[in-house]
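INTERNAL TRANSFER SHEET
From: sequence group
To: structure group
Subject: Carboxypeptidase-like regulatory domain-containing protein

Please process the attached sequence and return the structure record in the designated field. Keep the field labels unchanged so the import script can parse them.
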Amino acid sequence: MNIKKLTVFSISLLSGFILSAQTISSKVVDKKTNEPIPYATIELAKNRGVITNEEGKFSITLDEKLAQIDSIYISSMGYQKVGIALNAISDSIIYIEPKAIELSGVFISNKNLTIDEIIDNVKDNLAQNYSTDLSHKKLFYRQSDFSDLHKINVKFKKSTIKEFNKKFIDSVISIIPRKSAYYTEALCDLYGDYDKQKLNIIKGAELYDKSNDGSMEALSDKLEDILKKNVKPNSYLKIKSGWILGTKVQMDSIFDANEEAAEVKEEIEKPNKNEENYFLNYRKSSLKSLLSSMFFQEDSQLNFIDKSGRYRFELIDYTTMDDSSVYIINFEPKRGADFKGTMYVNTEDFAIMRVDYENVKNLRNFGLLGISFHDTMYKGKTIFAKGEDGKYGVRYIEKTRGNVFGIDRPLKIIEKNKFVKGRRKQNELSLGLDIGAGEISKYEVVVFDTKPITEAEYQNSKENKSIKPQYMSKYDPEFWKGYNIIEPNTAIKQFTAIEGES
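Return from structure group:
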């Protein structure tokens, strides 16, 4: 019996500014409004930098390669790019001002383009604007998972095993965690392109409440002990329904009889954390999914460019981003499409430099024989930066996925023995289940550095298959000391497991 261990983990440096032993932490704020500026770029060198989090905070560590850096450059959409000497910073807050936009010659020449012409130019320039070549990316990955078991009603019907009585079933229900959260982080080297990758994890960590996992392990041991004592030799158990605990689901042949149901089963089942190389394989799988879902990838679910005829576009304004003038274009469905959002398009080369999106309806609704699944949330943002080759690569990915799952059907666990004469059925437990659960997963990826590599270099790259994450029961500001990461938010910093075990 498994339940997904979900809790919160992350690391950060101090929230105020510290310039000590090559480490800087600070917060970027709008000078006029005093509001934090999220997702601003802190540039350390060409194509190297970090991103501020949603609270405008960032941390950087100057390693040996950056030891000669004496200034940082801060830029954000709509703001003046500023360079700041490290020895001139004397406050925990860095203020930047909105930029007075100057119409460039290119923008003036393009300003009479219709929105359809702009979108056509975006589509025509996709191949030359986005790099799909092999590369080596240094990146930081964070995943945040939240689980909510909002309904669990179990009706006791019948049991021929005395230990499996109503009192025991009620005790099982009382142990199952209703809410849980789990954060994991990893600093990685990613080799490959959008279709194939090798991942070398340098360092990783996870934080969750072991009291949740401990209670479920104790329950599992107790159930196993009861079954061992009551199940006869050469017996086997037949389950005539589905079983759900938290968000981990094991399904019977119901799913095998329906193609859509089988897809739902695959989507809601999570890899077993006890599997060998789980930490590496799951991070690798998640990164591949994030990269393959880019709007310029073939058959991407984000089809607002590929299937532009299904969307309505509106040019609402323009601004600046990375010293380039950009169109601000909103999009929304007009013929049953799935997403709405905003994209920021370079007026010169028509590259989408940033896109913010969210679904406007459930992406999937499935119901069969008392089992339901709703794919409720698909939103995020992606920021691109131009490399030395003139093509754009991913700088930052934020993506949130959510679903709700329900089961309202009977459950029977029947012991059968083919060597017993007469009735093969030996014991039976019969219940009625009415359970509802929800899950939200948020992914954040910051790409610090990107370099092109050859096919030979890709083939020679290695994966650290023995890597295991370090468990922590509470936020530890020392864990990532000396490494560049994206700052965690306040909620992550304040997390402490109930039991405080480590």
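Handover comment: Residues 1-21, 242-255 have pLDDT under 50 and may be disordered. Residues 128-146+179-232+275-362+378-401+436-493 form one domain.
Transfer complete.
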